[in-house]
Amino acid sequence: MSVSHRRPVPLSKAYRLLNHGPTVLVSAAHDGKRNIMAAAWAMPLDFEPPKIAVVLDKSTWTRQLLEASGSFVLNVPCAAQADIVQTVGSTSGLERDKFQAYGLQAFAGELLDAPMLEGCVAWLECRLLPEPHNHQQYDLFLAEVIAAQADERVFSDGRWHFEGHDALRTLHHVAGGHFLKIGDPVAGKNLDD
C-alpha cells in the first residue's frame, strides 16, 4: 500500500473503523521490544472521546508490552493479509521478533511508538485506560483512541466502501483459523451523517 493512500480520520468517526467487527492486529512496543498479535474480540465503546475495548490473554507478549507502555495500536488487516493474521496469531513474540521473522513492514504512528503494520486498511493509536481489576479478572483492556488513519480507497467520508477492492475487504474470524471477508453493501435508510 502506498503512503499516499493513508489519510487522517477525524476522531469523531474513528469508531467506524471498527464498528463492522473486523479481526484486528494489536501491536505494542516498550523498551526497544515490539510485538503484534491477532485479536478477534475488539469493539468501539464510545464516540467522544472515542474509546475501544479489546480482550488480551494474560499469556501474550503483546499484553506485557501494552501494560508496560500504556499504549498500543489496533491495526485492521484486510483479506490479502489472511495468512499474516493467522501466522502472527498463532506464534509467540517471546520466541522471535515477528516483524523481522515474517518480513512485516511497519511504520511509525502520529503519536505512539507502537508499530503500525503496512498493508492494513485502518490504524487506531490507543492510550490505555488503567483498569487493573478488568485487566486481571476479565483480560479486558479499555483505551482512548488518540489518532486514527485509514486507506482512502476503502474508507472515506466516515464510511467503508469496499466495492472494486476485494483484496482490501476486512477479515472476520469465525473460529478455528477460518475467516470471512466483509461482503457487499445492502441498501438501507441513511439515518446518520
UniProtKB/TrEMBL annotation:
Cofactor: FMN
Keyword terms: Flavoprotein
Keyword Transit peptide: no
Residue span, Flavin reductase like domain: 16-162
InterPro entries the UniProt entry points to: Flavin_Rdtase-like_dom, Flavoredoxin, Split_barrel_FMN-bd
Example of a GO MF term: oxidoreductase activity, acting on the CH-NH group of donors, NAD or NADP as acceptor
Pfam families for the chain: Flavin_Reduct
Keyword Flavoprotein appears in the UniProt entry: yes
Family from the record: Belongs to the flavoredoxin family.
Protein name: Flavin reductase
Species of provenance: Pseudomonas brassicacearum
